[in-house]
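A brief tutorial aside. Many learners find it easier to grasp structure tokens once they have seen a single protein encoded end to end. The record that follows does exactly this for LOW QUALITY PROTEIN: geranylgeranyl pyrophosphate synthase, chloroplastic-like. Read the sequence first, then the structure, and try to relate runs of similar tokens to stretches of the chain.
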Amino acid sequence: MNFANLSFEQPLLAEDLLTISQDKRPLVTFQFEEYLVVKGKQVNNSLNEAVPLRHPIKIHEAMRYSLLAGGKRVRPILCIASCELVGGDESLAMPMACALEMIHTASLIHDDLPCMDNDDLRRGKPTNHKVFGEATAVLAGDALLSLAFEHIASNTRNISPDRVVCAIAELSTAIGSQGLVAGQMMDLESEGKEVSLNELEYIHVHKTAKLLEACLVCGTIVGGGNTADIERVRKYARCIGLLFQVVDDILDVTKSSEELGKTAGKDLVSNKATYPKLMGIDKAKKFASELMIQAVEELAYFDAARAAPLYHLANYIANREN
Ligand code: GRG
């Protein structure tokens, strides 16, 4: 991709996080803010329809409470953007995108439970168990997880069964005992212990990056991408996934609870291993900038116009404020 002669709708990056050289900027003018708003609304509408308020009312109320509480919708939007990157229409990816948000929300509900992170605030509201009680919160997470797979199987259209099965395999691996659950397990086990940078990377890669990788890879699969496309997107995804968590660690020490919509400074109070703690805030920011640059380089193989959303999403993840 030729990155020369570019124009931008907004500044690329917060100066303190990173600067990226002119020749790495995408070719096309792209209204990223509008893209985020439009895609976010479409995802919210689809999620609202996917979980109607029906009998038994309490469990569906609890599922809807957390699922529709806001959230940046980064995962479904990454899925849609990677589908569009390889020429697929958004409609092909929407059931998968909604499923990813359901799984993400399930993991947040469980993560906030007293037996896990024990948190009171999520997405700017009291956590699920604070409102509905612990037992219902556990069930709401279980039901969202199950519904995610039902939703993919029942609502995906115009994609070969081979591709759907392949995407489901990718997704289920990413969230099980070799993915999300592995990261959470190691995170719990490392509480109160000295953690090396390698161990911290294992936790972050599994707890956060694997699901983000699945979002991008599944979007590429359902969008019709070939093996080379999938592997290139996977490389981008691995950088973005780790970047997301490094930035999360930085935000925990630099923002307030109001700004984050969740309890700020929690990592410090619980003496948790984080990138700022292990390498200092400046080096953590530098690491984030390196990951962002590496991610963007992986997009060079793709059509510039189609790659623009993923280019801007990398920038957004690096510079997000919550
Ligand atoms: C339910 C499959 C399943 C597993 C449960 C509890 C658990 C195992 C894993 C916890 C995983 C976890 C909560 C990781 C943190 C990921 C993270 C950085 C979340 C914040 O994501 P944002 O900033 O939040 O995208 P919003 O609210 O905007 O969606």
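Self-check: Residues 7-319 form a domain with the Farnesyl Diphosphate Synthase fold (CATH 1.10.600.10). If you spotted this yourself, you are ready for the next section.
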